[in-house]
Amino acid sequence: MKNRRMSAVSLAVLGMMTALVFVSNYLRIILPIAIGGKTSFTLANIMCCLSGLLLGPAGGLASGLGSALYDLTNPLFAAECWITFLTKGIMGLAAGWVLRSAAHREAPRYPRCLAGAVCGCIAYYVLYFFKCFAYDGLLVEGLPPAVAVGILPLKVPASLFNAAVAILIAPPLCLVIRAALKRAHLKIA
Known about the structure:
Blueprint: H1 2-24, E1 28-32, E2 38-42, H2 44-55, H3 59-73, H4 81-103, H5 110-140, H6 145-150, H7 156-183
Antiparallel strand pairs: 1-2
Helix pairs in contact: 1-2, 1-3, 2-3, 2-4, 2-5, 2-7, 3-4, 4-5, 5-7
């Protein structure tokens, strides 16, 4: 019975994090770029990292699914929802793997949560910039490779802001939520 209860709690948190990732995607400012697509200031990366930090690698499902569902509701992003599922999913997955590697030994502490958020952001932005080059630049826009690479610096300021906010906010938020769950005698990943 205890294992079923833990599974039910983890499933409930997975669903809640999927919904929070979806809703947090609406907190964005879209910046059109003349060539090579668009970029955004968004707070969704906080929830994507938090999903991995709370749920371990399974948090990748919440971050990928919540972000992909948002893309399906926005005509600017609908065509690339499958890419978003993969890239944002890997963000949560990477954050969760870092946290999970020590989860069986001890309760997560701030340095481990911070490392998870950093790794999640790095994994995401490597994939994001590759997507901007290959999919947006070469495939969709039909740009020559040199031009597709040349537009990537236009996406750096928003990307740095999004990553910094996620790295600053997700780890302490994770610790606060985990402490509240522990006081309520609920255990997740």
